[in-house]
Hints:
- The protein is of the alpha/beta class.
- The chain contains six helices and 15 strands.
- The strands form three sheets. The protein has a six-stranded mixed sheet with strand order 5-4-3-2-1-15. Strands 6-7-8-10-13-14 form a six-stranded mixed sheet, with helices on one face.
- Strand 6 and strand 7 form a beta hairpin.
- The mean pLDDT is 97.
Amino acid sequence: MPQTPFKIGLIQMSCSPDSGANLAKAAARIRQAASGGAQIVCVQELFRSQYFCREENAALFDLAEPVPGPTTECFSALARELEIAIVGSIFERRTAGVYHNTAVVFDADGSLAGIYRKMHIPDDPLYFEKYYFTPGDLGFRCFDTRYARIAPLVCWDQWYPEAARLAALAGAQVLFYPTAIGWHPSEKAQYGVAQHDAWRTIQRSHAIANGVYVAAVNRVGYEGPPGQGLEFWGASFVADPFGQVLAEASHDQEDTLIVECDPARIEEVRRNWPFLRDRRIDAYGPILNRVID
C-alpha cells in the first residue's frame, strides 16, 4: 500500500431538483479540488438529487441508475483525465425492485476499483431509507487506489464502530463517509448542538480507536417544504489518526476541503496507542449476538 503523503478533497455542496445540474456542479467542484492538489476526491451522499428519502413515493425510484450509468461514466472520465481517485455516491438500480445506496470508487486511470453498498439502513422521520434501499450485501470493503488504500462507508454506517474497525483491519488508511444528515426544524433549537456534536464525536472516535484518517462529507442547505424539511448541517471534516480535526467546513456554505494525509502519522499513532495490538479477539464472540440476554 502507498506510504507517501497524499491529499484528499471533500466536496460539500447544496443540491437542486435538477439532477443534471447537480452532476455538472459536482464535476466542476471535483476539477477545482484537483487543481488545488487533491488526489482522492469524495462527494456527498446521493448528490445527484435533493434528499428524496424525506417521503415514501414510488415515483422517486425513477431517480435510480445502474452501474455503469451516467454518473459512473462521468466520474470515470474525470478520474482518468485528472489522474485522481474519486469516491462517488449513487442511487443504484440493481434490478427491478432491488435498489441500493452505493458508493463507487474510481482509480486515477478511470477504472472502477469497486463498489460499496450501504450496510446500515435507517428508518426515522424524514429519513425513510428502508423504503428505498436494500441493505448492502458486499460487506465492508477496502479499495487500493494509486494514492492510498481507502474504505468508503455511507452516512448511517458512521455510527457503527464495527464498520470502522473491520475497514481498518482490512488496511484502510482513510475512512470516507459520504453523508446526508441535518436538523429537523422543530428539533434544532433544543437538540441541534448536541446532535451535531454526537455526529462529530462518534467519527473522531473511529479515527482514534483505529488509528486511521476519517473524512466525513455532508451536504448543506434546506430541502423540503417550509417547516417540514431538513436543514443539512454541512460541517464536513477530516480527522487525523488521533482524532484531531485537521479541517472543517461551515454549517451553511458550500465548501471544498483539501487536506494532506500522511501514512507516517498512522504508524506513529499506532505505535504509541496500540489498540489493535491489545484487542482480545478470543473474547469478542458474543458481539455477534443481537443482544446478550
